[in-house]
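Annual report, structural modelling task.

Input specification for the zinc ion complex:
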Amino acid sequence: MLNIIAIKTGMLEENCYIVHKNSKAIIIDPGSEAEKIVNEIEKNKLEVVKILVTHYHFDHIGALNDIKNKYNVAVIDYKSTGNVKFNDFEFKIIKNYGHTVDSVSYYFEKEKIMFSGDFIFRETIGNYDIENEEVMIESLKSFMKLPADIKIYPGHGETTTTDYEFKNNPYLRGI
Ligand SMILES: [Zn+2]
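The model returned the following structure:
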């Protein structure tokens, strides 16, 4: 089982997530307030093994350099593809461009959880420029093909599920 700690950072209340198992931890989107993130790591006696970035908007990476320098670990982002496996972690990188041209989700298939960044939120989606509309629609189409039982941890706001979004997200209607 994966343990997940959500930390709201910055004025935009970006959700930074610490995902940990057997004392090893991944930090997803260190948005800002590095000391808040470090405190959680220390409180739970975790060893940080990797940082994941869902996309490079300032509210998601404000503390990236501080965290990277502190733990001296590699960063995974849109430049990686496919299946990634290290320590007790295994996940798929799903490209869902639209909100930005570097937006990805991290899908832990076995645990049925996904970190969606600003691609999809409860009952809405991330904003996008009109020239990226087609790309966003492609991303939403592939989202619709996911299993219905995935729990989603978005970059802002509360958690949701694929099933709930399939039924209630207005942007998925007619896709
Ligand atoms: Zn964003």
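Residues 90-175 form a domain with the Metallo-beta-lactamase; Chain A fold (CATH 3.60.15.10).
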